[in-house]
Each structure stands twice: as structure tokens, then as C-alpha cells.
Amino acid sequence: MTGKLFKVEGAGNDFILGVGAWADRLTCEPELVARLCHRRYGLGGDGALAVSPLSADRARLVYRNADGNEALFCANGTRCAARAAVDLLGLPCRLTVETDWAAIPAEVHGETVALELPPPGALPLMSPIEISDPISDLESLEVGVPHVVAAASGLADLDMATLAPPLRFHSALGSDGANVHFYEIRDGGSLAVRSWERGVEGETMCCGSGVVAVALRVMDRLHLDHVEVIPRSGARLVVEALGDPPSCRTRLTGPARLVAEFEPTAELLEGS
Asked: What is the CATH number that goes with domain 135-254?
């Protein structure tokens, strides 16, 4: 087996990342991805990143959720892929990562990685979604993948397992549903966010594209051009509006780390 397999994390989102022949396997073997990402029987991860060089300053990223299903985009995963392309594949610090959503310009400066994202798409709701306290101001937005965002009082004490799944699978969002994010504006203007993600089917420490969706809605409402967002991991990300929110390009900046290099056992690879 050529190439290497790595554990990486971006703002609390953790991933299995492969280059070389491992990238080929992560791309083509969803069952392997699910085994590797399992929190008890595998290596653990919110998803898997298959990263391959395309040219002197371009890399290709195929992203799979922890259940093995492909997704069009993962912002924190793309930031980790950009760092891996620089540190592992020798690409320059200014590069482009081609995802299934769009070609994403990236800048890597050590552990700090920034992405420039296209304008979001509107996520049409087929019927209204009823909500009640402690949730308010529910809105939807598509940042590569669909998101529902809502303000919430007492964010730290929310029962995510009760509140998020009915929104995640709501019939108004279509058969695939959406990621769900609750936010609270802190003193000083930063946003605290908690996220429930598709494919993981649980709360994650951060969702990068969800952070952008929340930030765009809040920047629009409060007439801001940037905002600091703090997910459950405690990491600090900055979202900048490159135009008039919410229908504008954005820059997402935050940490991305290579945590470990490893070689899975035959039992894990073969599913025995």
C-alpha cells in the first residue's frame, strides 16, 4: 500500500485523511470509511478526506461522511485537506481545492487555514416548520450542503438529542434533510454555535459550513461584515462577508492540524 493515512482535525471536526493509494480507497470504498470512522470499533472521525494532487497548485478532495456516504462539501474538511496538500503533497500555500460543490481557493499559514467560499444558495422549504421556545428565528441556507439555523436561548443547556432530530429529518426539507445549528449571541458580539450533522447523526464539535450559514444570517440581521464564531469545541473561527450578506462570498478562517499518521490493522481493513 503506497501513500499514507492520517488523522486530522479542524476546529474540533476530526477526519481520516488519505493520500496516494489511500485516497483511492477512501474514494471508492464507503464501507471502509464507515469502519475507519466508527467511534468504538474504528479510529474515529466525523468523516473521511481523500486528497490527490491535480496540478502544481490544485488538489482534489472527495469527502465522505462518517456513514460512508459522499457529501458535496465539508468546510472544515476542506481546510484540513488544504493543509495536507501543502504539508504532505508539497503544494504552495495559496492553492485551490476542488470539491464536489465548487473549486475553493485556500491559503495555508501553519495551523491557520482560510477558504474563500462561493455565495450560498437558498434552501426552499416545501412547507413552514413550526418551532417553539427555546428556539426562534429559524432560517435555512445552502453552503454546499443544506443547513437549518435558529437562535436559541440557554444554548449551553439545550437538549440537542431532543430538539435537533425533528428539524434534521423534517419533511419540509426534502428526503435528505439538513444539518441543524443553534446559536446564541454572546456579550462582545461573538456567536456560540452547536451543531447536529447529517452522516454523523449526532452533535459534532463543529461544522464549518454550518458556521458560515449561521454567520451569514447574523451578519445580515445585525449589519456586520465579519463575526467570530465559537463552536462547541471552543475553537475560534472568523467569517468575513465579501459583499452584502447573506447572498455573498465569504472567507472562513480557523485552525487545522495534522494529528497522527497510522497504519490500520488487517482486521479493521477487512471488517473482521
From this structure: 3.10.310.10
